[in-house]
Design brief:
The structure holds two protein chains of two kinds. Chain A is an alpha+beta fold. Chain A has five helices and four strands. Chain A has helices spanning 15-27, 44-47, 54-81, 94-120, 157-166, and strands at 5-12, 33-36, 144-149, 171-176. In chain A, helix 3 packs antiparallel against helix 4 (94-120). The longest helix of chain A is centred in the middle third of the chain and has 28 residues, at 54-81. By secondary structure, chain B is mostly helical. The longest helix of chain B has 34 residues, at 161-194. The two termini of chain B are 23 Å apart. Classes of the chains: A alpha+beta, B mainly alpha.
Chain lengths: 177, 474
């Protein structure tokens, strides 16, 4: 019984049950929790009190960096390092530089979206205690889980368990750290 | 609230039969996790593998002997390499259209074809990329195309559409790959959790990178996925526009027209949807995926093909009109040459394949006939290839000075390389179907959830399918 706990997890049958349970847990004052579902559920992140706009901002910033990088590259090459008279155009013939600038913007922003999403999610992550939960492999298939974590100030081994059972969970179990 | 929604086309038709989260997951996931495959899979993969060898041989001989083994000459310097490049890159475009543009337009029917179409994009762009690389003659110095400092001290010339093309195609390939892999991550986690075999668990476990279906993960995931779709949408338009500028920025008769970018983009989507149908129809039958790839999907894809085909046909008419109206003798000669010159059979075949035959798609009966759809999709693929042949060859072989006219005849090595890429493409697609879930499992579960909730509302009328009832009723 001395193994430290990650939290207590409850398994539900449907997306609606999970959404309902998450809202009830928030109302009961729990703040440190996470929900697990086999597909994204509209409103679930709000229900567990989670909001995050880091990914869109990362995409915007990396996109701007991409645009500046793409244009500066062409400026440096065509104006500074290797000025070439092509059909009498000015060295800084910026309209011709737009397509490549656009492509580098999209390229950088896409890497921003991909790497940003993974990084803020803490992936790749070789180990996470939630995988110790019984039947948790179903979270990627057909079951819905709510885990109230041990770091929550209201967390109490018995009371939290009773609370989750009262929400109509199919199975409630402890998750070892 | 739902009672007010009047739907003319019930969403259930996007998933037929009775399905639960478990049956959807099993049906799609088991293709990857089981060892038993239809005999046709082995036969097609083996034939495709043979053509991969043809491809390797054609490339090896080309590297040994140079581009002289091809039929290209003066004045037709572009030949098969550019025809096939444009053909392949066009095919790729339907994948991005389905996965990105239809996502932004909230078209639920994209769900069961997006994974497949994105894979098609990636392999088609791989095939496309080979052609210009080999066409440069000395592919081992292809890095000169990139702005990498090298011993020559020279840099790429950024006022040329050819260098824009390098950036457009490499960006397109990279972004398509990122988008595709992002879409795969949750399904890889599903396979990791379902796999019984230790090796499969490890491989899918590593690839899923610890994805745990957390609401926090999904929150960032959805925003990243939507942003990638938003970035891909203008990207796909830019790619084929830039490809068309390779032609339009030159002064060659028949190429120097402003209609090229939109006309090329429509043609790309047209040929891409034809290729999706060509691939989806046999694979759907082979793996009995009719529940997820329904007649509704085929019907809508056929409609998009018809619509984009008409845009392309409008492009042909405008090309003729512009040439006649321009009072430019070279432009006018080009049109005469297309109609009646030595390559006229190609032009007429193109009009029949792209303009005439697809008109039968107006008939709902034809759109419901799988065999006919398959044949029409093949005809459109051929037609779009002929279009690029006509654009490249008829413009180049007789331009301004009759003294510099010539003829272009592809050699066996041209055909070897072309058929080789078709083999490579088929080979990769069949490997994809074998090793990666061909339909996005988590999006299908989401669709099932949404359609089920929809049918929970009483006013929807019509036959209620108890799709996920066993899962949702407590």
């Amino acid at each position: 019984m001395n193994v430290p706990l990650h939290g207590i997890i409850a398994e539900f049958e449907s997306a609606e049950d999970l959404l309902h349970a998450a809202k009830r847990a928030r109302e009961a004052g729990y703040t440190q929790m996470d929900a697990y579902s086999p597909f994204p559920i509209h409103g679930l992140s709000e229900a567990i009190g989670f909001e995050d706009h880091k990914v869109p901002w990362t995409v915007f910033i990396t996109g701007v960096i991409g645009a500046i990088a793409g244009f500066s590259l062409q400026y440096y090459i065509s104006v500074v390092d290797y000025p070439l008279n092509v059909g009498g155009r000015p060295f800084l013939s910026w309209p011709s530089f737009i397509p490549v600038t656009f492509e580098t913007t999209v390229l950088f922003a896409s890497f921003g979206a991909f790497i940003g999403m993974l990084a803020f999610n803490g992936l790749p992550q070789p180990y996470h205690p939630i995988f110790n939960a019984p039947r948790f492999e179903r979270a990627s298939q057909d079951r819905f889980f709510l885990c109230i974590e041990a770091k929550d100030p209201l967390f109490d081994r018995t009371k939290t368990r009773q609370f989750l059972e009262s929400l109509g969970a199919r199975l409630v179990s402890e998750v070892e750290e | 609230m739902q009672g007010q929604i009047v739907r003319t086309e019930p969403a259930t038709e996007l998933i037929e039969g009775q399905h639960t989260y478990e049956t959807v997951t099993h049906k799609i996931g088991s293709v990857v996790l089981s060892y038993r495959h239809p005999r046709a899979w082995y036969v097609v993969t083996a034939i495709a593998a043979f053509f991969v060898f043809v491809l390797i041989t054609s490339i090896a001989w080309l590297l040994l002997r140079g581009v002289g083994i091809w039929g290209i000459n003066q004045p037709v310097g572009w030949g098969f390499a550019i025809i096939n490049f444009v053909w392949w890159i066009g095919i790729g475009h339907a994948g991005t259209l389905i996965s990105a543009i239809l996502l932004l337009l909230r078209q639920q029917w994209r769900t069961s074809i997006n994974r497949f179409a994105e894979a098609m994009t990636i392999f088609a762009v791989m095939c496309a990329g080979m052609f210009p690389l080999l066409h440069v003659g000395r592919p081992w110095v292809a890095y000169w195309l990139l702005p990498i400092p090298n011993w020559t001290g020279a840099w790429p010339q950024f006022r040329s559409p050819l260098i824009w093309d390098v950036f457009a195609v490499t960006t397109y390939f990279t972004v398509s790959l990122l988008f595709w892999f992002t879409g795969l991550i949750p399904d890889l986690a599903t396979l990791r959790d379902r796999a019984k075999n230790r090796l499969a668990q490890v491989i899918f476990g590593v690839l899923a990178m610890g994805w745990r279906n957390s609401a926090k993960h999904w929150h960032r995931y959805e925003s990243a996925y939507l942003l990638l779709a938003g970035l891909s949408t203008p990207l796909v338009v830019s790619v084929h526009s830039i490809v068309s500028l390779d032609f339009a920025v030159s002064l060659i008769p028949g190429w120097h027209t402003t209609i090229f970018p939109p006309y090329f983009v429509a043609g790309a989507i047209y040929s891409g949807f034809a290729m999706v149908l060509t691939l989806v129809i046999p694979i759907r039958a082979l793996y009995k995926m009719q529940d997820f790839l329904t007649m509704k999907h085929l019907d809508w894809m056929a409609k998009i093909m018809l619509a984009t085909g008409l845009i392309v046909f409008y492009g042909y008419i405008m090309e003729i009109f512009t040439a006649l109206y321009s009072a430019n003798q070279y432009e006018q000669y080009l049109i005469t040459n297309r109609f009646f010159g030595p390559y006229a059979p190609f032009f007429w075949a193109l009009l029949i394949c792209n303009g005439l035959i697809p008109q039968v798609l107006w008939s709902p009966k034809v759109r419901q006939n799988v065999v006919l759809l398959f044949i029409i999709s093949l005809i459109v693929n051929v037609g779009m290839w002929l279009e690029r042949f006509v654009i490249v060859v008829t413009s180049l072989h007789r331009d301004f000075l009759p003294s510099s006219w010539g003829m272009y005849v592809p050699t066996i090595w041209d055909w070897g390389l072309y058929l080789g890429t078709i083999g490579f493409f088929t080979f990769m697609m069949f490997l994809f179907v074998r090793f990666v879930p061909m339909i996005s499992i988590f999006e299908m579960r989401d669709l099932l959830h949404q359609t089920d909730r929809h049918h929970a509302a009483p006013a929807t009328g019509a036959a209620v399918t108890p799709a996920a009832s066993t899962e949702v009723t407590p």
